[in-house]
Design a protein that fits this description.
By secondary structure, the chain is of the alpha/beta class. It is about 30% helix and about 15% strand. α5 packs antiparallel against α7.
């Protein structure tokens, strides 16, 4: 199985599309040695969000690395942020712009199609089915798309990112009350900066599935890894830092879910 899905019993599905670290054995020889360290992983998110089972949330995570296929990119590989540096459906560069593959070994059209069918489609079929199940059960559903990233990556963005980057596709993916609840839960937290629909407005998952008129609301949270871990190898989890930010994350998730429930009189 290329992904894991734990089904919950509340109208909340958390997707973590970039937590996978595996590269299939038959592909490993195509990558540079450095690429096998999968440095651009969204490290330790399941541990950071370990409060989700107690909330009754559904959680979907992939097995394979984003270096194999990026589950948060559209199947036609259209750029998410035109005019800026973008990584592809089957990425060919590290986040600093260096080549992931050995010379002449990047995947061609047939291999990209195979990966889309083998890894991308099953994940999205399961994600869509779980959203449909929860919506049928509750009448609405909140999709929380969880990410993390190094705080400074010049190839992708200038300067240092705000610590917490909330994205709702400029408001198209979630009701304003839900976005406001997520923002309010982290506003004013000492030493933690935040922004709504800044550099990261939500990727394919947020934009594709967030349909407020259809009672599906989607929020992406891109957080700086400096909040909870070492941003350089060996990318170690920092328990002291994590304990400070976990309550904020929990308040953001529960606040957004409460706002959704209030919208529907639940």
């Amino acid at each position: 199985m290329s992904f894991s899905l734990q089904r919950g019993n509340v109208p909340l599905l958390v997707s973590m599309p970039h937590t996978g670290t595996n590269i299939p054995p038959e592909l490993r020889g195509d990558y540079t040695e450095r690429a096998l360290g999968v440095e651009d992983t969204d490290w330790h998110l399941q541990r950071l969000y370990d409060f989700l089972p107690a909330l009754g949330a559904s959680v979907i995570t992939p097995r394979y690395s984003r270096y194999v296929i990026d589950l948060n990119r559209p199947p036609d590989d259209a750029p998410m942020y035109p005019g800026a540096s973008n990584t592809e459906l089957c990425p060919t560069h590290f986040f600093n712009g260096d080549a992931l593959y050995k010379e002449g070994r990047a995947p061609g059209p047939a291999e990209r199609l195979r990966r889309r069918e083998t890894y991308w489609q099953p994940y999205h079929a399961a994600l869509a089915a779980e959203l449909a199940r929860l919506k049928a059960q509750h009448g609405f559903v909140l999709l929380w798309d969880a990410h993390s990233i190094r705080s400074e990556i010049p190839w992708l963005f200038e300067g240092r990112l705000p610590d917490l980057n909330i994205g709702t596709a400029n408001g198209a993916a979630a009701a304003p009350a839900i976005t406001a609840a997520a923002a309010a839960a982290c506003a004013g937290v000492a030493g933690v900066s935040s922004i709504v629909n800044g550099r990261f407005k939500g990727g394919y998952i947020t934009r594709q599935y967030g349909r407020p008129a259809g009672h599906v609301h989607a929020v992406q949270l891109e957080k700086c890894q400096s909040l909870y871990m070492q941003e350089v190898a060996p990318f170690a989890y920092d328990e002291v830092l994590a304990q400070r930010i976990q309550p904020v994350l929990k308040n953001m998730v529960t606040g957004s879910l409460a706002a959704a429930c209030q919208l529907y009189g639940r």
